[in-house]
Design goal:
It is built from 24 helices and 23 strands. With about 700 residues, it is of the alpha+beta class. It has 3 domains: about 400 residues, no CATH class; about 100 residues; about 110 residues, Jelly Rolls (Sandwich), CATH 2.60.120.
């Protein structure tokens, strides 16, 4: 057994050190909260979907009906702590007011993470300045951006750090109080984020490391029997109840399908971005600090810290690689270990910064990995969804003016910081202050970059996807409405409408459309007369119709209100389509392919007349639109650049009429690959059209 005494100062000695007065610490936390609040309230609208809509919808349902439902259906969503804590905010008035209050709650929660980070560091390391650095890094990590979003991370973050602090105490000096504290914080963290069901497993792994290191496994089993028993009971409950039933929304987590090579690549990429997010400069020393605390611990507290920090880091990395999307960087699931790094570096520094050869080797490996996996490959839309650090890199690309310029700037800064880390290893007295200060500054700079990138994106979405009144459907006061998702519609656009309008209580998806989330959406089909059919029968009531990349025309319906890409339509009776053109954007621009459908007014009815399209070639070139009619005929419609042309297609059809078109794309506009423009399809009835044959 490792003796409690060690070359490190004991906890009592540490407490005898000069302290920053409590009132200054409180003042610092209040100031940090105030600054964060000023930042988060600059965010115009949510843009991290579907998560922000799901948590908001759950919170509203809990406030309104006391049950976790989404659009009237049970959500089977295990992460309910955030919705429970924020539910009262959604009853405070308008949705905008509720949104701002939720942001304030999450800003406060994330700011409070500094407390367990500080306490944890003080329990392990004698220097209060290392503890202050750990608290500061906990506040300025790029993932602090989540405080502006309606997600669970800000709530889970302080709970995870508190669980780690309690776990270190329970491993170092086992007591009923410390073990109950660990179980409580671990349970709350899991209730906030299901991924932290791994915390008890990490504790057990850390206890095993301590047992092996001290060569007293029986004593460790006896000391930790409460945690082992509670974890065993929880596992039995999960197995008896059924894992899929408990996790509900995340049931696919129990069906991992990851290739070993993809998994290894994911771990490498995640480690690299995690090192960047932590400020880079302290990472080599922190790794050696964890190694030293396990291989040659100077106290049981130090051993407990090293064992639990190692187990948590490995556990989160494996979890992200097994259950996360290996195509994406999973920083969102890993950043909780960052506040532990200053403590690990501090332990390395108290040893006199030994193992310089190993330090050089780790630094060389990190630089080689960063060169092998350049940030420019990852810092792009669709890949950076779960990495706030990569959002910061994209903001640097905007600043430096180039797709790779921002990544190159980060790489150069990382190389300089690594040289500093190597250089200060020869100056032990100044090393801790320099390295920890640089890491806090580097992480804080990337947080500000990530914040600015997200703020600008939020402003763009606010302008593109929403009208002046965000709650435009609620303001129309037409009652409960159904969101109709059309072919080509954007999930983000649909989620914006769902987030800001309580009266949208159901979602229907037309063929070719994509549901905005995995919950409570119904497929919509159509009959021979164009009636829209959902599983319960003909679709009735107000409809919020998606017009982003499809033009939907309803028969006998009045348009009550509009947003940039949606129309609020109240049908007279059941909803009935007269025409649908997919592959046509809201502004008339055409995709490379699409189709047109027309329906008669009655089932078994006849269509006789003309389809009229007014098309225009774009400024960058002519439009060559090829229309393939139901009988296999092709019709070429040519329009020169900036030249309008009116085309008429004869129609003679028993029942609905469908055609497809191709229009080779020639330019990118607002991220869209487009060709020329077309008016909405217009059908002109003419019984004489059938006397000449039909299409």
């Amino acid at each position: 057994m490792i003796a409690p005494a060690s070359p490190l100062r004991t906890l009592a000695e540490a407490r005898a050190l000069p302290r920053v007065r409590l009132r200054w610490l409180v003042f610092a936390l209040v100031a940090a909260f105030g600054l964060r609040l000023c930042l988060v309230w600059q965010r115009a609208t949510p843009n991290y979907f579907p998560d922000e809509y799901l948590y908001a919808a759950l919170g509203r349902a809990l406030a309104a009906v006391g049950a976790p439902t989404i659009r009237g259906h049970s959500a089977h969503f295990p992460e309910l702590l955030q919705p429970l804590l924020t539910a009262p905010a959604w009853r405070a008035g308008s949705l905008l007011t509720g949104y701002r209050i939720v942001q304030a709650i999450e800003a406060a929660a994330l700011t409070l993470a500094a407390i367990p980070a500080y306490v944890l560091a003080r329990k392990v390391h004698p220097s209060q300045w290392v503890a202050i650095a750990a608290a500061a890094l906990a506040l300025v990590v790029p993932d602090g951006l989540y405080a502006s979003m309606v997600v669970a991370e800000p709530i889970a973050y302080p709970l995870v750090l508190a669980a780690v602090a309690a776990g270190i105490c329970a491993l170092a000096r086992p007591s009923l109080r410390s073990q109950l504290a660990f179980l409580a914080f671990a349970g709350l963290a899991t209730f906030a984020r299901a991924q932290f069901a791994i915390l008890p497993l990490c504790f057990i792994a850390a206890a095993a490391i301590v047992a092996v290191r001290e060569r007293e496994p029986r004593r460790i089993l006896r000391e930790q029997r409460l945690v082992l028993f509670a974890s065993g009971v929880a596992l039995i409950v999960v197995l008896v109840t059924g894992p899929h039933r408990i996790v509900g929304y995340y049931s696919e987590a129990f069906d991992p399908h990851v290739h070993p090579i993809a998994m290894a690549q994911s771990i490498g990429a995640n480690l690299m971005v995690l090192a960047y997010a932590a400020g880079w400069v302290l990472v080599p020393g922190a790794i050696l600090g964890v190694y030293g605390s396990v291989a040659k611990p100077r106290s049981r507290t130090e051993l407990a810290f090293g064992a639990l920090a190692f187990a948590l880091a490995v556990g989160l990395l494996l979890e992200a690689a097994l259950y996360g999307d290996t195509v994406l960087i999973q920083e969102r699931y890993l950043f909780y270990v960052i506040p532990l790094m200053p403590v690990a570096f501090g332990l390395y520094a108290t040893r006199g910064l030994p193992h310089r050869t190993a330090l050089l080797g780790i630094a060389a490996v990190l630089l080689a990995v960063s060169a092998r996996l350049p940030l420019s490959h990852w810092a792009q839309p669709g890949v950076d969804d779960h990495s706030t650090f990569l959002l910061g890199v994209q903001q640097l690309e905007r600043i430096f003016g180039g797709n790779a310029a921002g990544a190159e700037a980060v790489a150069v800064a990382a190389a300089v910081l690594m040289l500093v880390a190597i250089g200060v290893s020869f100056v032990p007295r100044a090393a801790t202050a320099i390295v920890l200060s640089l890491s806090v500054v580097a992480a804080g700079a990337m947080f500000l970059c990530a914040f600015e990138f997200d703020r600008l994106n939020s402003d763009v979405l606010r302008h593109l996807d929403l009208p002046a009144n965000r709650s435009w459907v609620d303001a129309a006061r037409v009652g409960k409405a159904t969101l109709v998702v059309s072919p080509g519609g954007r999930v983000t656009d649909a989620d914006e409408q769902l987030f800001w309008n309580r009266s949208i209580d159901s979602v229907g998806v037309l063929p070719g459309g994509v549901a905005p989330d995995k919950l409570a959406s119904q497929p919509i089909s159509f009959t021979k007369d164009g009636s829209l059919i959902e599983p319960g029968g003909v679709l009735r009531g107000p409809l919020v119709v998606d017009g982003y990349a499809s033009t939907v025309t309803l028969r006998h319906g009045r348009v009550v209100s509009r947003s940039p890409h949606f129309a609020l339509v109240v049908p007279d009776g059941g909803a009935q389509l007269s025409s649908l053109m997919w592959g046509r954007y809201w502004d008339g621009r055409l995709l490379g392919s699409g189709g047109i459908a027309l329906w008669p007014a009655h089932g078994g009815g006849h269509l006789a007349g003309w389809l009229v399209l007014n098309v225009t070639g774009a400024h960058f070139g002519p439009l060559d639109m090829t229309l393939r009619t139901p009988n296999g005929k092709r019709r070429l419609i040519h329009a020169a650049a900036n030249t309008p042309v009116s085309a008429r297609v004869r129609i003679c059809s028993d029942g609905p009429w469908f055609a497809t078109f191709t229009a080779p794309s020639r330019d990118i506009d607002d991220g869209r690959l487009v060709s020329g423009q077309s008016s909405p399809p217009r059908f002109v009835a003419d019984a004489g059209a059938c006397t000449h044959g039909g299409a």
